[in-house]
Amino acid sequence: MAVSGAVPGRFFLPGPTEVRAEVLEAQTRPMIAHRGAGFQALMGDVQDGLRDVFRTKRPVFVSTSSATGLMEAAIRNSGTGPVLSLVNGAFSERFAAIGEACGRVVDRLEVGYGEGHDPDDVRRALRARRYEAVTVVHSETSTGALNHVEEIAAVVRRESDALVLVDSVTGVGGAELHADAWALDFVLTGSHKALALPPGLAFGVASERMMERAARTPGRGVYFDLVAHAANLEKLQTPTTPALSLLYALQAQLPRIGAEGMDARWARHARMAERTWRWVEGASRETGVALRVLASAGFRSPTVTAVLAPPGVDPGAIVKEMAARGWVIGGGYGRVKSTTFRIGHMGDHTEEELERVLGELDAVLRSTSPS
Ligand SMILES: *Cc1c(COP(=O)(O)O)cnc(C)c1O
Hints:
Bound molecules: pyridoxal-5'-phosphate
Shape: globular
Structural class: alpha/beta
CATH superfamily of the largest domain: Type I PLP-dependent aspartate aminotransferase-like (Major domain)
């Protein structure tokens, strides 16, 4: 039997994503001391590439954790006052739940799964109560919805002094984002989504405002204390032992990302997404299976598409049949688990690879289409 994901170009999970062989191989380099000049050179090197990826002049935190760790960091370093959580899927709900788990009062501003938030609604919520922070997910990986973070952040800045905390886990590296120009107070991502690295590292950028607030926030804890991270990063170090092998992979991947260029990378993701949406429409016509893109037009992520199956068609069976043929796509996640499947068209995937996975999906749909 074919081992799923063993053939390059066939792993379309919305995280972890496919990692190129040369990046994987970089992880076999020997260990170095993480308090020595060798590590500082490594950290200095990856800082340049990471700043470009986030479009920031600020230092970029490197956390040995999954992305959820930095979601917790966002909450724990942003004061103690009420949080407004923009919820439109499972990951934005997780952000709200982390707020509550860390003892914050959290108000949810919810829109439907597949929708993005209207800045006018955010404005109204901010006028009704004083918030210390607003959480928002840029690309909601459970639904494929994209929030217009730039507009939302602008509204928050105009209406309040709340910090804007952005989960851009499937945004950074695939969807356009400018941490500095959009005045985002904290942006976080993980290694294993659009950056096409193995899981285990998370990256974050904090504004000066955020760092001032962090310094005054009691109960920041230890592992995700951004003040400690910042002090260590000044010496090009991390507070605790970093996942060195993953940093080697990062050091190998960043020049590859740099060679493509962020504008070209965003454009490639946009083309892959548009191709996927067109395919969904075509598949309905050509295979008789009335698929639909879950996310509303104008609010669709360039990195992941959740595809809604019609009643009577089990998306799980489609995912399984793809796996049997040696291709990996994602099942549904959260509230839309049983009605959707997901294609992670992000990371280093090429348009040719996408064309092949969509072709295979056509064949699977024809064989499963209800007659
Ligand atoms: C994957 C993902 C996360 C969680 O990432 P982990 O690395 O599993 O902790 C959070 N938010 C979004 C939008 C994601 O896609």
